[in-house]
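EI: anyone free to look at a 160-residue chain?
SC: sure, send it
EI:
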Amino acid sequence: MTDVIKPAGDPQIGNLETPINSSGFSKAFIGNLPAYRTGLSPQRRGLEIGMAHGYLLYGPFALLGPLRDSDIPGLAGLLSAAALVVILTACLSIYSGAGVNTAVTKTTTPFTPPASLETDEGWSEFAGGFLIGGIGGATFAYLLAANLPILTSLVSGGHS
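SC: here you go
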């Protein structure tokens, strides 16, 4: 077992290099995430990340929220997801204003955040893209769920 899992760099740090976090697949997957992909503007990064978050936040609010048994669970899910995206955008703005600039260790993953996210302007663009993408993603999920019978009939070719 000790030949498979070994310390990455200094063993006193407690960061282990395992077959999971050091495999080529894991590194390729992480490298293709919008946070680390090269050639993207901060606004585009925020837009992609926001769309994913807004789309995924709609479902739990619509299906498990306190208004799930009412007449408007979909609308409640949309508004709740949009409100959470606004709160998260405010948190991103607060983080950018705090000027947190910690060194990133590169022991197990060779990826560092892009230089554009080291400035207040870059974080502001990221937060704006996150807000637009998050509300857009939640709206898209709501429209899909609200029109599910129509989409199902289109896919089945009109046969029920």
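EI: The two ends are 56 Å apart (CA to CA).
SC: 👍
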